[in-house]
Amino acid sequence: PSYLSDRINSLSESATLKMTKLGRELAAKGINVISLSVGEPDFNTPDHVKEAAKKALDDNFTRYSPVPGYPELRQAIVNKLKNENGLDYDISQIVVSTGAKQSLSNVILTLINPGEEVIIPTPYWVSYSEMVTLAEGKSVFIDTTIESDFKITPEQLEAAITPKSKIFMFSSPCNPTGSVYSKDELAALVKVFEKHPNIFIISDEIYEHINFVGKHESIAQFESIKDRVIIVNGFSKAFAMTGWRLGYIAANREIAAANDKMQGQTTSGTCSIAQRAGITAYEQGLDSVYAMKEAFERRRQLVYDLLNDIPGVKTNLPEGAFYFFPEISSFFGKKDPEGNVIKDSSDLALYLLNHGHIATVGGDSFGNNNYIRLSYAASDENLKEALRRMKEALANLV
Ligand code: PLP
């Protein structure tokens, strides 16, 4: 309606949430829909984390927390960054929020003036460009394809930089491609950033633990630019805590203070109970994370083999996260059994939902129309059945 603000009218609906909703609607009609659209682990939060939350309630951690989070949680985050990533921060540089999503939004709103540019490699996580729009900034995209494993080169980065560039924003491991930048690849990008001291780097590391090629490499390890890096991370993916809403940033003190101020006028500190549980999650180690990663690695191979068995679909082997981003443009221009033409990746995702009863997400919402995203955070059994349905549905396009 016209009475809504231009700001909200300029935003798109989250495509991943929309496909999940459509899938649920079909399921409510009694149809067996397999969801490969949602970005969340299919595991339960580890028991010791749940116990910590119960204890937090019994101990009456039920009141407002400090806006940037309990000092004990921020200290646990500082310790984690030191022990796992070799990075030095102190608690004045940590701001806890209601998930990495809010952290990203806080950072963009605290750094971007209208018209300033945010450089985003495609494909990117759906919300990045919308958050930039909300802040009245301008997204500048660097296109990548499956041939370069969806990674940008230093030359591409250099070419995208203008006097208005303010932020470079990326995720590694990447949602939606699963690509992981190696230390050498990051070092090559850092050389470019060294020449442009006014650009900040948002490093979204929410998938750091779901990495099949070795240890996580953060771009904040490069001292020459560390002060300009804002690490965004959280508990959703590592500890299967998507519903708890717990994320954070690590940044220079000025940016951290600005995020604290932003949050102080919008959401305040995040859920006290989730924060207490977060302390336990970080203090008690990563055993549950390793078990989850093992399952993801097995499923990755399963889906890789099955995707390679579908004519017209081209895929790489993702190095992290729990997504595939196969190329599907060979189906554009074909018709479904009712005669509707598949024009783009969203059409294909809708076709797969309505005819194959599997929920995926069109690549167009991630900035690359020739692909679709499949999440393999589902049981082995469901994955096998989903890929069987996908193969069959795609074979019915003429
Ligand atoms: N960043 C990326 C790349 C994601 O995929 C997601 C969740 O899907 C988030 C951030 C948000 O995570 P959170 O649940 O912590 O808000």
Automatic annotation (TrEMBL):
GO terms for biological process: amino acid metabolic process. Pfam families: Aminotran_1_2 (PF00155). Residues 32-389 form the Aminotransferase class I/classII large domain. This is Aminotransferase. Belongs to the class-I pyridoxal-phosphate-dependent aminotransferase family. InterPro entries: Aminotransferase_I/II_large, AspAT/PAT-like, NHTrfase_class1_PyrdxlP-BS, PyrdxlP-dep_Trfase, PyrdxlP-dep_Trfase_major, PyrdxlP-dep_Trfase_small. Keywords: Aminotransferase, Pyridoxal phosphate, Transferase. One of its GO terms (molecular function) is pyridoxal phosphate binding. Coiled coil: none annotated. Its cofactor is pyridoxal 5'-phosphate. The keyword Transferase applies. Its EC number is 2.6.1.-.
